[in-house]
Amino acid sequence: MDDVVMVQIRSIAEMGAYVSLLEYGNIEGMILLSELSRRRIRSVQKLIKVGRSEPVMVLRVDKEKGYIDLSKRRVAAEDLAKCEEKFAKSKLVHTIMKHVAETTGTDVEELYKQIGWPLYKLYGHAHNAFSMMITDEETEAIFQRIKDEVFDGKDIPILTPDVKEGLLKNIRRRLTPQPIKIRADVEMTCFNYDGIEHIKTAMRAAQGCSNEECEIKMRLVAPPLYVLTTMTLNKSKGVELLSEAVEACQKSIESNKGQMRVKEAARAVSEKEERMLQEELEAAERANREVGGDSDSEGDYEEGMQMDVNAAPALAM
């Protein structure tokens, strides 16, 4: 009772909504109309939709009649977030277990009985144990704990070399953190004497915010557009550090009577956005070569387009 579980809406009736409890073998439950919302209900269809997954609270379970009464309106905001996180972890665990079972010809139910459920019991959630098994040091200790506490020190029957290799391969492929790219776009100009040098100084100020975990890079797309980027495993820290780099760059250029406008603040970017940026850079490079080939002052133009803050031939840092 009072547990918050994830369900999928199956159908909507006059009394409420029939749902499937996703974490309990898709057994049927019902959200009564009065338990859908704390506010006056004008349209049930706007509150819930067939096929959508929803966190709900378990109110009553009548085992004899097979009734499970649920509530959507009583789920607190913090419980909602916890339920969604738990469900996402359980879904990932099931994906790994199912894939290992299919690729090794193992019965998935037995795999859960001998490895999955023991991990839930011993570590609070199998996902917690899987996260620890990314490193070799923890893996053997976890399997040994299952042997000691579930199989009285004997080997786990289902843990053949193929099953073990399949588990570790899937766990490391799906749970190893992937670096996130953080990017900010700025427009920067300086028409003061030695303006290019002042811009280089500002770029060095931005890159000077780098630390051991995140290296800040800044490069020219096409005047006056510049991009600042970094790679990180921690999104919030990456955004914070890149924002500091933008501020340092702005402070430096404005101290030399230049101007800078933040076109897009620091944020995580998708692969699609990165492909678009790469296409812009390539287009700018092609345009630079074409103009440079027709001009007597090719060297001067190249310096403007490809200036490097450390006086090297290329700009990209």
- Poorly predicted segments: 294-306, 311-317
Distance between the termini: 58 Å
Helix content percent band: 40-55%
Structural class: alpha+beta
Order of strands in the sheet with the most strands? 1-2-3-5-4
Estimate the strand proportion. Answer: 15-25%
Main sheet makeup: 5 strands, mixed, barrel
Outline: extended
The average pLDDT value, as a whole number, equals: 85
Radius of gyration: 29 Å
Contiguous helical run count: 10
The total count of strands amounts to: 9
Helix and strand sequence: EEEHEEHHHHHEHEEHEHH
How do the helices and strands line up, and which of them pair or pack?
Layout: E1 4-12, E2 16-21, E3 27-32, H1 44-47, E4 53-62, E5 67-71, H2 77-104, H3 108-123, H4 126-132, H5 136-150, H6 161-175, E6 180-189, H7 195-207, E7 217-222, E8 225-232, H8 235-255, E9 259-268, H9 271-294, H10 298-306
Parallel strand pairs: 3-5
Antiparallel strand pairs: 1-2, 1-4, 2-3, 4-5, 6-8, 6-9, 7-8
